[in-house]
Design brief:
alpha/beta, 3 helices
Length: 86
């Protein structure tokens, strides 16, 4: 399917040796799939940030959890921003 990028970290510090943006550019990544906890929070923010940086973004709803009552609003925000979801 797609490439999985693993960040390298400085010994014991949890500080990445290079930024995720640099890794994605070096690996010529153009499409990003996002999932995780809090669809209307971290997932949406990651999707919007990646979209603003010019990546083609897909939010995988089966891999994203959140508050059911906020899902419609979040999906409408995705539509307005041009973020795809399935």
């Amino acid at each position: 399917m797609g490439a999985t990028i693993k960040a390298r970290f400085s010994g014991g510090t949890l500080r990445p040796l290079e930024s995720l943006e640099d890794i994605l550019a070096r690996e010529e990544i153009t499409h990003i799939t996002v999932g995780g906890y809090l669809l209307e929070g971290a997932v949406a923010n990651t999707a919007f940030d990646a979209n603003a940086l010019g990546y083609s973004v897909m939010v995988e709803l089966r891999s994203a959890a959140g508050h059911p009552e906020k899902q419609r609003e979040t999906l409408e925000r995705f539509d307005r921003a041009g973020v795809r979801y399935a």
